[in-house]
Structures are given as C-alpha cells and as structure tokens.
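Handoff note, outgoing to incoming analyst
You'll be picking up this chain. Sequence as last confirmed:
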Amino acid sequence: MRLVIQRVRRAVVRVKAGEASPAAQVSTGEASPAAQRSTGEASPAARMSTGEASPAARPSDGDPSPAASEVAGEIGRGLLVLVGVERGDGPEAARAAAEKLAGLRVFDDEAGRMNLDAAAVGGSFLVVSQFTLAGSVARGRRPSFDRAAPPAEAAPLVDALVAELRRRGATVAEGRFRAHMEVELVNDGPVTLVADF
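Most recent structure output, in case you need it:
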C-alpha cells in the first residue's frame, strides 16, 4: 500500500456524475507475464502524502464544473491521504497505515515545531483512493499499472483504512472508489510526505 499524505487547511473531492475512472479499468486484470518477470512479487509497501488546505480552495475552472459534479468528501484543517493499493497488500497494511496516520505529528505547536497530531489540532482526514500510486514509469513513455491491485482487492483495503482511523476516534471523509474525481486542496507549508506500508 502506498500513501501520499498532505497537511491541508482545506480539501475537497468532487466526482463527475455518472462517470467511472478510466484508470480503474486498467487495474482490473492480472499482471502480465512480462510484468511478473520484471517486478517479481508485489511489494507490501504503502506511500502516504499529507497536506493542509485553506478555506481559499475554490471549484476549478476546468471540468467538472460544480454544477456537473457533487462533493463526495470535504475537510477543513487536517490530512489529505491518497491511497494506492498494490498486489499482495493485506489488512495488516491498512492497520499499520491507520496507526501511523493517527499519531503522525506534523502540525505545529506553540513553538512552531511539528509536534502535534491531527487529533491535537482538531484535524480530520480525507481519504482518496488513487491506484496510479502503484504505477511505474521505469520503462517506456506510458505508465504501467501492473502492480496495482484489482478493484475487488483494493476497495476492501481502502475501506479498512477508513474504518481503522474511525476506530481510533478520527473524523474521516472519503472520496468515491473507481469514480473520476477532482481533488482541490490548499497544502499548508507545503507539507507532503510519502510512506510505504
């Protein structure tokens, strides 16, 4: 599992009405024999990125327009977490990621040092599935997504991450799995982290 975590002042995820992500279709098949030879076994790694978004976030000028989309999830101060599930990831990756996220001290204390976790500052989490985090650009000019877990395997692990965060008392908003999403955020700092589980 790969996560990208961004400390945000505000973050919003919108979905286009009636449209599935083309990326989701790519991740449904088994790894090709060439991918199996080149990558070996899937790594149970997760990357995370954190951002702090501000109320200055506005709907973008591009498509989808606010009228052609709906808000799936929105938070004020907190952490935007992009989640890419890879082949071979299991429930232990979701548990470990949730434990790390819940206690991650990336918010400033009175002295201006990163010393506070999301709960200490009244922060929330916005969890957005993003299978492209499992992509590789090592060969050729088009990314390969052979390491991405099929949707039937990935969706329960994203749900497990959300459930584990909530079990720890966190307020969690979500994107919509396999939907075409537009994510708007104001990254505070900027602070962006990558973590593998």
